[in-house]
Amino acid sequence: MSFTVAADAYDRFMGRYSVPLAPQLADLAGISSGQHVLDVGCGPGALTAELVRRLGSAAVSAVDPSEQFVAAIRERHPEVTVRRASAEELPFPNEAFDAAMAQLVVHFMESPVAGLGEMARVTRQGGVVAACVWDHAGSHGPLSLFWETARELDPVVEDESHLAGTREGDLAELFQAAGLHEIEDITLSVSVEHPTFEDWWEPFTLGVGPAGAYVAGLDPERREQLRERCQEQLPARPFVLSARAWATFGRA
Ligand SMILES: C[S@@+](CC[C@H](N)C(=O)[O-])C[C@H]1O[C@@H](n2cnc3c(N)ncnc32)[C@H](O)[C@@H]1O
Question: Is 122:110 a contact under the CB 8 Å cutoff?
Fold first, then answer.
């Protein structure tokens, strides 16, 4: 999946859920002052910003295949080392970092085992590799209501539930296949308030990720049908959407 969208569109669509996830993933990976850490699939920087806050810019490196997101990191964090690259081919030497992290990325990797293997290679022996992916396969992801409604209207819709890492236990299997040790699974959760239905819906029209691409491919009538059906299921007053992510940690 390529993300050829503006950083601001990503922030509004997914950043609203990934920003509150970042400190939890960083806490669980034991990220603290003095470490050098790599953010793999950094996007426009939800986790990068948290790492900069904990470690300082000079101790943070980041990669993403999206040109727009790499440009956003350069603008937002000029002192972070950022490269345009995929997890499967990290442009760093062996054991360059104390930890390598991938927040909401493994399910988009062409080869998750190769990507995690590369993350292990660039992490010092005994250092932490950490990743998390939304529970897209259950009904507790931040996009679950959207995909369930889309499927109700179009039974053959291709949602994100088939992707690697979206089922409980998937990530641990991938970590094992990638040669990581002392693997542990944890569940993370976020709760995000949406002031109105429109605040929730409008970012789906910005073309971000598989859900945005799906909406962009609908004709206006079907898009409106989907919007209305979603609206019927959400309260008119401000509402809180809670979502969970599967997180896994291992040692290189
Ligand atoms: C859902 S976003 C997550 C961004 C950010 N980590 C966050 O938590 O908001 C997925 C990101 O993975 C990147 N990505 C897709 N395929 C990748 C790959 N093979 N290696 C590394 N990053 C990849 C995308 O460009 C995108 O920025």
Answer: no
Q: How far is CA 86 from the centre of its chain?
A: 14
> Average pLDDT over the chain, rounded to whole?
96
Our answer on whether the CB atom of 110 is closer than 6 Å to any ligand 1 atom is yes
Q: What are phi and psi of 98, to 5 degrees?
A: -80, -25
Helix/strand/coil for 54: helix
Closest atom of ligand 1 to CA, residue 14? 9
Q: What is the pLDDT of residues 14-53, one digit of tens each?
A: 999 999 999 999 999 999 999 999 999 999 999 999 999 9
237 CA distance to ligand 1 middle (Å): 33
Greatest pairwise CA separation for the chain in angstroms: 55
Angstrom CA distances, 63 to 7, 30, 113, stand at 15, 21, 17
Residue 3, pLDDT score: 82
Residue 119 has pLDDT above 80, yes or no: yes
Nearest CA to ligand 1 atom 23: 41
